[in-house]
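pls design
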Protein backbone atom coordinates (compact mmCIF):
# COMPACT_ATOMS: atom_id res chain seq x y z
CA UNK A 1 0.00 0.00 0.00
CA UNK A 2 1.34 3.44 -0.94
CA UNK A 3 1.99 5.66 2.04
CA UNK A 4 1.04 9.34 1.52
CA UNK A 5 3.20 11.75 3.51
CA UNK A 6 1.10 13.84 5.92
CA UNK A 7 2.00 16.84 8.09
CA UNK A 8 2.60 14.27 10.86
CA UNK A 9 5.50 12.50 9.15
CA UNK A 10 6.79 15.23 6.80
CA UNK A 11 10.00 16.82 7.95
CA UNK A 12 9.98 20.54 8.82
CA UNK A 13 12.50 21.28 6.04
CA UNK A 14 10.02 19.96 3.46
CA UNK A 15 7.18 22.06 4.88
CA UNK A 16 9.47 25.12 4.98
CA UNK A 17 10.50 24.60 1.36
CA UNK A 18 6.86 24.26 0.29
CA UNK A 19 5.93 27.41 2.26
CA UNK A 20 8.78 29.39 0.69
CA UNK A 21 7.67 28.16 -2.74
CA UNK A 22 4.09 29.33 -2.07
CA UNK A 23 5.46 32.68 -0.85
CA UNK A 24 6.98 33.17 -4.30
CA UNK A 25 3.46 34.11 -5.44
CA UNK A 26 3.43 37.15 -3.15
CA UNK A 27 2.96 40.61 -4.65
CA UNK A 28 6.04 42.82 -4.76
CA UNK A 29 6.96 46.30 -5.87
CA UNK A 30 7.43 46.19 -9.68
CA UNK A 31 7.55 42.40 -9.27
CA UNK A 32 11.14 42.67 -8.01
CA UNK A 33 10.62 39.73 -5.58
CA UNK A 34 13.31 41.21 -3.30
CA UNK A 35 13.59 38.18 -1.00
CA UNK A 36 15.68 35.09 -0.40
CA UNK A 37 14.49 32.17 1.73
CA UNK A 38 17.17 30.03 3.37
CA UNK A 39 15.86 26.65 4.54
CA UNK A 40 17.53 24.92 7.50
CA UNK A 41 16.55 21.55 8.99
CA UNK A 42 14.80 23.29 11.90
CA UNK A 43 14.14 26.84 10.77
CA UNK A 44 13.38 29.07 7.81
CA UNK A 45 15.13 32.43 7.36
CA UNK A 46 13.84 35.28 5.22
CA UNK A 47 16.45 37.70 3.85
CA UNK A 48 16.06 40.95 1.91
CA UNK A 49 17.82 40.93 -1.47
CA UNK A 50 19.20 44.45 -1.77
CA UNK A 51 20.31 43.90 -5.37
CA UNK A 52 16.62 43.96 -6.29
CA UNK A 53 15.79 47.07 -4.23
CA UNK A 54 14.69 50.14 -6.22
CA UNK A 55 17.46 52.49 -5.21
CA UNK A 56 15.84 55.56 -6.82
CA UNK A 57 12.14 54.82 -6.31
CA UNK A 58 12.46 53.20 -2.89
CA UNK A 59 15.64 54.55 -1.29
CA UNK A 60 14.51 53.83 2.26
CA UNK A 61 13.52 50.25 1.41
CA UNK A 62 9.93 50.75 2.57
CA UNK A 63 8.42 49.11 -0.53
CA UNK A 64 11.01 46.31 -0.34
CA UNK A 65 10.02 45.59 3.27
CA UNK A 66 6.30 45.72 2.43
CA UNK A 67 6.94 43.18 -0.34
CA UNK A 68 8.95 40.90 1.95
CA UNK A 69 6.27 41.21 4.64
CA UNK A 70 3.67 40.04 2.11
CA UNK A 71 5.89 37.04 1.28
CA UNK A 72 6.30 36.30 5.00
CA UNK A 73 2.52 36.28 5.52
CA UNK A 74 2.09 34.03 2.48
CA UNK A 75 4.58 31.56 4.03
CA UNK A 76 2.74 31.66 7.37
CA UNK A 77 -0.55 30.89 5.61
CA UNK A 78 1.01 28.04 3.61
CA UNK A 79 2.37 26.49 6.83
CA UNK A 80 -1.01 26.84 8.56
CA UNK A 81 -2.73 25.18 5.60
CA UNK A 82 -0.17 22.38 5.88
CA UNK A 83 -0.98 21.82 9.56
CA UNK A 84 1.94 23.63 11.19
CA UNK A 85 2.04 26.57 13.57
CA UNK A 86 5.30 28.48 13.44
CA UNK A 87 6.90 30.96 15.78
CA UNK A 88 8.05 34.07 13.87
CA UNK A 89 10.89 36.32 15.07
CA UNK A 90 11.00 39.55 13.03
CA UNK A 91 14.37 41.27 12.51
CA UNK A 92 15.92 38.88 15.06
CA UNK A 93 19.57 40.01 14.63
CA UNK A 94 20.27 43.67 15.44
CA UNK A 95 23.56 43.46 13.51
CA UNK A 96 22.00 41.91 10.39
CA UNK A 97 19.25 44.20 9.04
CA UNK A 98 18.81 41.96 5.99
CA UNK A 99 17.72 38.97 8.07
CA UNK A 100 14.05 39.96 8.16
CA UNK A 101 12.50 36.99 9.89
CA UNK A 102 13.14 33.53 11.24
CA UNK A 103 10.37 30.95 11.44
CA UNK A 104 10.64 27.97 13.79
CA UNK A 105 8.05 25.20 13.95
CA UNK A 106 6.05 25.52 17.12
CA UNK A 107 3.61 22.64 16.87
CA UNK A 108 1.27 20.82 14.58
CA UNK A 109 -2.12 22.42 14.39
CA UNK A 110 -5.53 21.44 12.99
CA UNK A 111 -6.00 22.78 9.48
CA UNK A 112 -8.89 25.26 9.41
CA UNK A 113 -11.17 26.02 6.46
CA UNK A 114 -9.98 29.62 6.70
CA UNK A 115 -6.32 28.57 6.23
CA UNK A 116 -7.29 26.42 3.23
CA UNK A 117 -9.31 29.28 1.68
CA UNK A 118 -6.42 31.72 2.10
CA UNK A 119 -3.89 29.17 0.76
CA UNK A 120 -6.08 28.77 -2.33
CA UNK A 121 -6.19 32.57 -2.67
CA UNK A 122 -2.36 32.58 -2.76
CA UNK A 123 -2.57 30.62 -6.03
CA UNK A 124 -5.12 32.90 -7.75
CA UNK A 125 -4.39 36.40 -6.35
CA UNK A 126 -3.11 38.88 -8.91
CA UNK A 127 -3.00 42.60 -9.66
CA UNK A 128 -5.68 43.76 -12.11
CA UNK A 129 -5.00 47.38 -13.14
CA UNK A 130 -8.14 47.75 -15.29
CA UNK A 131 -11.04 49.86 -14.03
CA UNK A 132 -13.31 48.00 -11.60
CA UNK A 133 -17.05 47.50 -12.18
CA UNK A 134 -19.84 49.89 -11.14
CA UNK A 135 -20.83 47.42 -8.39
CA UNK A 136 -20.05 48.47 -4.84
CA UNK A 137 -18.21 46.16 -2.49
CA UNK A 138 -20.78 44.80 0.01
CA UNK A 139 -20.32 46.32 3.50
CA UNK A 140 -19.68 42.88 5.02
CA UNK A 141 -16.92 42.26 2.49
CA UNK A 142 -15.24 45.55 3.26
CA UNK A 143 -15.46 44.78 6.97
CA UNK A 144 -13.88 41.35 6.42
CA UNK A 145 -10.97 42.88 4.46
CA UNK A 146 -10.41 45.57 7.09
CA UNK A 147 -10.56 42.99 9.90
CA UNK A 148 -7.98 40.79 8.12
CA UNK A 149 -5.63 43.77 7.70
CA UNK A 150 -6.16 44.93 11.27
CA UNK A 151 -5.28 41.49 12.67
CA UNK A 152 -1.74 42.19 11.35
CA UNK A 153 -1.60 46.02 11.19
CA UNK A 154 -3.96 48.92 10.45
CA UNK A 155 -6.12 49.88 7.47
CA UNK A 156 -8.03 53.16 7.14
CA UNK A 157 -10.89 53.36 4.60
CA UNK A 158 -10.95 56.86 3.10
CA UNK A 159 -14.06 59.05 2.93
CA UNK A 160 -15.00 60.51 -0.47
CA UNK A 161 -13.44 63.89 0.50
CA UNK A 162 -10.24 62.10 1.40
CA UNK A 163 -10.31 60.17 -1.90
CA UNK A 164 -10.34 63.48 -3.79
CA UNK A 165 -7.27 64.58 -1.80
CA UNK A 166 -5.59 61.24 -2.47
CA UNK A 167 -6.35 61.67 -6.19
CA UNK A 168 -4.68 65.06 -6.43
CA UNK A 169 -1.71 63.88 -4.33
CA UNK A 170 -1.27 60.80 -6.55
CA UNK A 171 -1.37 63.03 -9.63
CA UNK A 172 1.34 65.29 -8.17
CA UNK A 173 3.46 62.30 -7.16
CA UNK A 174 3.21 60.84 -10.68
CA UNK A 175 4.37 64.15 -12.22
CA UNK A 176 7.30 64.37 -9.82
CA UNK A 177 8.33 60.73 -10.40
CA UNK A 178 8.05 61.13 -14.20
CA UNK A 179 10.41 64.12 -13.98
CA UNK A 180 13.07 62.17 -12.08
CA UNK A 181 15.44 60.56 -14.63
CA UNK A 182 16.71 57.94 -12.16
CA UNK A 183 13.22 56.77 -11.22
CA UNK A 184 12.26 56.76 -14.92
CA UNK A 185 15.35 54.66 -15.76
CA UNK A 186 14.50 52.17 -13.01
CA UNK A 187 10.93 51.88 -14.31
CA UNK A 188 12.23 51.36 -17.85
CA UNK A 189 14.49 48.55 -16.63
CA UNK A 190 11.79 46.66 -14.68
CA UNK A 191 9.20 47.01 -17.46
CA UNK A 192 11.57 46.69 -20.43
CA UNK A 193 13.02 43.84 -22.46
CA UNK A 194 16.37 43.88 -20.62
CA UNK A 195 14.78 43.18 -17.23
CA UNK A 196 15.82 40.22 -15.10
CA UNK A 197 14.13 37.10 -16.50
CA UNK A 198 11.12 36.06 -14.40
CA UNK A 199 10.89 39.46 -12.67
CA UNK A 200 9.45 42.89 -13.52
CA UNK A 201 6.32 43.59 -15.53
CA UNK A 202 5.62 42.29 -19.04
CA UNK A 203 3.49 44.40 -21.41
CA UNK A 204 0.67 41.85 -21.09
CA UNK A 205 -0.23 43.04 -17.55
CA UNK A 206 0.02 46.78 -18.28
CA UNK A 207 -3.06 48.63 -19.61
CA UNK A 208 -2.96 49.50 -23.31
CA UNK A 209 -3.92 53.08 -22.45
CA UNK A 210 -4.40 55.09 -19.22
CA UNK A 211 -7.46 53.92 -17.29
CA UNK A 212 -10.26 56.17 -16.09
CA UNK A 213 -9.84 56.23 -12.35
CA UNK A 214 -10.72 58.63 -9.53
CA UNK A 215 -7.16 58.32 -8.25
CA UNK A 216 -4.58 58.21 -11.08
CA UNK A 217 -3.00 54.77 -11.33
CA UNK A 218 0.71 54.33 -11.68
CA UNK A 219 2.14 55.65 -14.94
CA UNK A 220 4.52 52.89 -16.09
CA UNK A 221 5.97 55.20 -18.72
CA UNK A 222 4.82 52.99 -21.61
CA UNK A 223 1.56 51.50 -22.84
CA UNK A 224 1.09 47.78 -22.34
CA UNK A 225 -1.06 45.35 -24.30
CA UNK A 226 -3.75 44.62 -21.71
CA UNK A 227 -7.09 45.61 -23.30
CA UNK A 228 -8.97 48.18 -21.20
CA UNK A 229 -12.72 48.87 -21.41
CA UNK A 230 -14.38 52.27 -21.19
CA UNK A 231 -15.37 51.80 -17.53
CA UNK A 232 -14.59 54.22 -14.74
CA UNK A 233 -13.83 52.99 -11.24
CA UNK A 234 -16.46 55.21 -9.58
CA UNK A 235 -17.47 52.38 -7.22
CA UNK A 236 -13.90 51.74 -6.04
CA UNK A 237 -12.99 52.21 -2.40
CA UNK A 238 -9.60 53.64 -1.43
CA UNK A 239 -7.75 52.85 1.78
CA UNK A 240 -4.41 53.46 3.47
CA UNK A 241 -2.26 50.92 5.27
CA UNK A 242 -0.70 52.72 8.20
CA UNK A 243 0.91 52.21 11.60
CA UNK A 244 2.55 53.81 14.61
CA UNK A 245 6.17 53.89 13.48
CA UNK A 246 8.01 54.43 10.21
CA UNK A 247 10.85 51.93 10.36
CA UNK A 248 11.74 48.55 8.83
CA UNK A 249 9.82 46.47 11.39
CA UNK A 250 6.68 48.61 10.85
CA UNK A 251 6.93 48.17 7.08
CA UNK A 252 7.46 44.41 7.39
CA UNK A 253 4.32 44.10 9.55
CA UNK A 254 2.43 46.33 7.09
CA UNK A 255 3.41 43.92 4.30
CA UNK A 256 1.87 41.09 6.33
CA UNK A 257 -1.28 43.22 6.71
CA UNK A 258 -1.27 43.86 2.96
CA UNK A 259 -1.13 40.13 2.26
CA UNK A 260 -3.86 39.37 4.82
CA UNK A 261 -6.16 42.01 3.32
CA UNK A 262 -5.41 41.00 -0.28
CA UNK A 263 -5.87 37.24 0.28
CA UNK A 264 -9.17 37.83 2.10
CA UNK A 265 -10.26 40.20 -0.67
CA UNK A 266 -9.42 37.49 -3.22
CA UNK A 267 -11.62 34.95 -1.42
CA UNK A 268 -14.63 37.27 -1.83
CA UNK A 269 -13.94 38.45 -5.37
CA UNK A 270 -12.57 41.88 -4.51
CA UNK A 271 -9.66 43.22 -6.58
CA UNK A 272 -6.81 45.13 -4.91
CA UNK A 273 -4.31 47.49 -6.56
CA UNK A 274 -1.57 49.05 -4.41
CA UNK A 275 -0.50 52.64 -5.22
CA UNK A 276 2.95 53.33 -3.87
CA UNK A 277 4.16 56.48 -5.70
CA UNK A 278 2.09 58.75 -3.48
CA UNK A 279 3.87 57.33 -0.43
CA UNK A 280 7.39 57.51 -1.87
CA UNK A 281 7.32 61.21 -2.86
CA UNK A 282 8.04 63.19 0.33
CA UNK A 283 5.58 66.03 -0.38
CA UNK A 284 2.65 63.74 -1.01
CA UNK A 285 3.63 61.46 1.91
CA UNK A 286 2.85 64.50 4.08
CA UNK A 287 -0.58 64.83 2.45
CA UNK A 288 -1.32 61.22 3.37
CA UNK A 289 -0.07 61.79 6.91
CA UNK A 290 -2.50 64.70 7.12
CA UNK A 291 -5.34 62.53 5.76
CA UNK A 292 -4.68 60.06 8.55
CA UNK A 293 -5.36 62.88 11.02
CA UNK A 294 -3.01 61.66 13.72
CA UNK A 295 -3.79 57.96 13.30
CA UNK A 296 -0.24 57.14 12.24
CA UNK A 297 2.28 56.90 9.41
CA UNK A 298 1.12 55.98 5.86
CA UNK A 299 2.75 52.95 4.18
CA UNK A 300 0.69 52.21 1.07
CA UNK A 301 -2.53 53.33 -0.64
CA UNK A 302 -4.91 50.65 -1.94
CA UNK A 303 -7.70 50.63 -4.49
CA UNK A 304 -10.39 48.04 -3.76
CA UNK A 305 -13.23 47.11 -6.10
CA UNK A 306 -15.17 44.36 -7.81
CA UNK A 307 -13.44 43.25 -11.03
CA UNK A 308 -15.45 44.26 -14.10
CA UNK A 309 -17.21 41.16 -15.55
CA UNK A 310 -17.06 42.87 -18.98
CA UNK A 311 -13.29 42.33 -18.93
CA UNK A 312 -13.59 38.57 -19.55
CA UNK A 313 -11.47 37.06 -16.83
CA UNK A 314 -8.25 37.99 -15.05
CA UNK A 315 -5.22 39.49 -16.82
CA UNK A 316 -2.33 37.14 -17.71
CA UNK A 317 -0.18 35.97 -14.79
CA UNK A 318 2.90 38.02 -13.96
CA UNK A 319 5.95 35.72 -14.15
CA UNK A 320 8.12 34.75 -11.20
CA UNK A 321 11.84 34.10 -10.70
CA UNK A 322 13.02 30.49 -10.75
CA UNK A 323 12.69 28.84 -7.35
CA UNK A 324 16.48 28.38 -7.17
CA UNK A 325 16.90 32.17 -7.31
CA UNK A 326 14.74 32.79 -4.24
CA UNK A 327 15.09 29.62 -2.14
CA UNK A 328 18.39 28.23 -0.83
CA UNK A 329 18.15 24.68 0.54
CA UNK A 330 21.91 24.02 0.61
CA UNK A 331 21.93 23.85 4.44
CA UNK A 332 19.55 20.86 4.45
CA UNK A 333 20.94 17.31 4.05
CA UNK A 334 19.44 15.80 0.88
CA UNK A 335 17.73 12.96 2.83
CA UNK A 336 15.63 15.61 4.62
CA UNK A 337 14.15 17.14 1.50
C1 LIG B 1 4.65 47.24 -1.89
C2 LIG B 1 3.96 47.13 -3.23
C3 LIG B 1 3.74 48.26 -3.99
C4 LIG B 1 3.10 48.15 -5.22
N1 LIG B 1 2.82 49.29 -5.94
C5 LIG B 1 2.11 49.21 -7.08
C6 LIG B 1 1.74 50.40 -7.80
O1 LIG B 1 2.04 51.53 -7.38
N2 LIG B 1 1.01 50.28 -8.94
C7 LIG B 1 0.64 49.03 -9.43
O2 LIG B 1 -0.02 48.98 -10.46
N3 LIG B 1 1.00 47.88 -8.77
C8 LIG B 1 1.69 47.95 -7.63
N4 LIG B 1 2.03 46.80 -6.94
C9 LIG B 1 1.64 45.48 -7.48
C10 LIG B 1 2.85 44.78 -8.10
O3 LIG B 1 3.25 45.42 -9.29
C11 LIG B 1 2.50 43.30 -8.34
O4 LIG B 1 2.26 42.69 -7.10
C12 LIG B 1 3.61 42.54 -9.04
O5 LIG B 1 3.80 43.03 -10.33
C13 LIG B 1 3.29 41.04 -9.15
O6 LIG B 1 2.10 40.83 -9.85
P1 LIG B 1 0.84 40.08 -9.21
O7 LIG B 1 0.38 40.91 -8.04
O8 LIG B 1 -0.19 40.07 -10.31
O9 LIG B 1 1.27 38.71 -8.79
C14 LIG B 1 2.68 46.88 -5.71
C15 LIG B 1 2.91 45.73 -4.91
C16 LIG B 1 3.54 45.85 -3.68
C17 LIG B 1 3.74 44.63 -2.83
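designed seq:
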Amino acid sequence: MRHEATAVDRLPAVAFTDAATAAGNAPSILNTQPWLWRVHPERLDLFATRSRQLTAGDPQGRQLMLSCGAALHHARIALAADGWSAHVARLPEANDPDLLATLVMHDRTPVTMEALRLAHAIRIRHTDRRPVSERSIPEAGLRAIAAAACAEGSLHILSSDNVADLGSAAGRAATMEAGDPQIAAELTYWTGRARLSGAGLPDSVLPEHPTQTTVPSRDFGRPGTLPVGAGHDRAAVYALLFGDGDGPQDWLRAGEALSAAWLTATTIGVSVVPLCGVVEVAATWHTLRHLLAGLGHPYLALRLGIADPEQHGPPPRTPRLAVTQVIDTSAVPSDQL
